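Recap from last week: sequence in, structure out.
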Amino acid sequence: MAAYKNRRFEHLGLLLCLLLPLLICPCGSTQERFESGELKGFLKERPELQKIGIPDAFHVRAVKGVVFYMEGMPLADVAFEIRDGSGRVLTTKTDSAGNFEILGVPSGAYSFKVTKNGFHSTIGQVIVSRKASKGKQIRIQLAAGT
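Predicted structure tokens:
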């Protein structure tokens, strides 16, 4: 019986280890967001950092990709956000390999913002379409802030 109880606590500990990062995620609702303007709904960053715009939209079938500092140097814990025409913002963050994905995004045009402390934010547009090339992903290189 004691062995069974210990196994239950092991599973509970594993569950907490998996859920805790989600509960304390810096891209959650506790961080301040812009209340108006072009960036309404997106996470705020330090005011001295620039927002670098990407002029051409990404055309993809699904919202997934990679964020890196320099080629071959992925960035973990980067907030990747998209906003639809109604103002709803969906946020995820990159894993240790710089990969991100937001599941179930319907076809349409979205604004996006990529944010990480110590780096300039990147903003632009992503168009989700079933006509986009298969396997095409969003690739964003962040510039270090000063």
